[in-house]
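## Example pair
The file below holds two records. Each record gives the amino-acid sequence first, followed by its structure token line.
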Amino acid sequence: MNDKWFDFAMRIQSIAQAGLQYGKDKFDKERYEELRRISAEMLSVKTDVSVEKITDLFCNESGYQTPKIDTRAAVFVDGKILMVHENNGTWSLPGGWCDVDQSVASNTEKEVREETGFIVSSQKIIAVQDWRLHNVTNFAYGVVKVFVLCKYEGGSFEENIETTEIGFFDRDNIPDNLAVEKTTKEQILMCFDSYENINSPTLFD
């Protein structure tokens, strides 16, 4: 879905959402509603997903539109990185959307606990990335990914509804079937670089 068409639709949706939030004139608001509908139709034509479903997923927020935050944990044990096996058969770093009542650090620790059963402590921000520049994107809104170096404190894998197993991998045996919208091989290697050089600077786009 890395496509200029989606960029255009996202920009139109963002302008329409801001106009609906801050516009005063009822006729202007009608025009912003029309722009929002057009953005949903653009995505529907491109994806064959119904306009109604896209509207529910893409045009259901109010207020000024901002990117969503996704936190990913880099947990190392004996020089190997922790990864989780998703229900769909792909591998990724543990993580997920940042809840509104959580900080980046606490959300990262929470996601690791929920997906693996491990207790970790956040140590350092490795990188803050715009996923459009690094990942295969599959959402029609902006996402900022925050990679956090974490220290393993204890625990063992617990069954959960999100992951089927965990694994530890070194640089040379990173799984091929990655959930690339969540974690790419380049991002995993970036985490290894930060772990192996603790004084390396935080990367950001």
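Second record, same layout:
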Amino acid sequence: MSKCRPTPEQCADTMPVKVNRIFDSCSDRDCFSNVRIQIGGELPGNINVVKSRCVRVTDICMNIEPVPFNRGFYSIDLTYTFRVELLAYERSCSSPVLLTGTAYANKNVILYGGESNTKTFFSNGEKLGETDACCETINLPTAAVQVVEPIALEARIASVCVAEDTPPVRSVIMTLGLFSVVELFRPVTILVPTYEYTIPTKECHSDTESPCAVFDKIRFPAEEFTPGSLPCAAKEESCGCTEGFDASENTTS
């Protein structure tokens, strides 16, 4: 079986390749509120103001389980680990002290991941599929989570009960915004069209021009020297800006 290129003089053959097929995916914007920052103890009593300096995702723990009575669907439990850097102040205008801590947040999604009762063994020692006590092969799909660095929406000091029957302790509480994409995929074999190898037409060369000659070719960034104005659509919401506005129609005598 072969398929032709758009050009009639050349045709493409098919070749089997092993790829990871995405069966289902979702994107989300999560707002995690009341996230306690663990800084290794109680917040010092002289600290009255905290500000976020940096927040980043350092790890995501994923647990996948089949959804009962809904074949092919899987529940994915996600635990985000955040590394937080805080600027702590005794007073608003005093010199800050840098504090570092860790925070955790959880979420759950359900996606379709297909079904497979096969076990696959690789020469490097990896394998796909496990067998339980009832000789039933369980071949779970693989989950992948993509995130951008979180946004610190709020940072405040509050008294929090860490455990039952213990007095509350002063802690830093944050609200974090996070954009994420979750995917479920499996390895599959598909046929793809293949073409003859081609030689690149672009020639390799080194730039021998002087640094000033290279700089002269860069476009002048005029927009960086011009303060931006509020778009008219936004002005309409805030100050009643309309196109074709005539000042003479709104003058008073």
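Notes on the second record: The two ends are 84 Å apart (CA to CA). Confidence is low (pLDDT under 50) at residues 1-6, 238-253.
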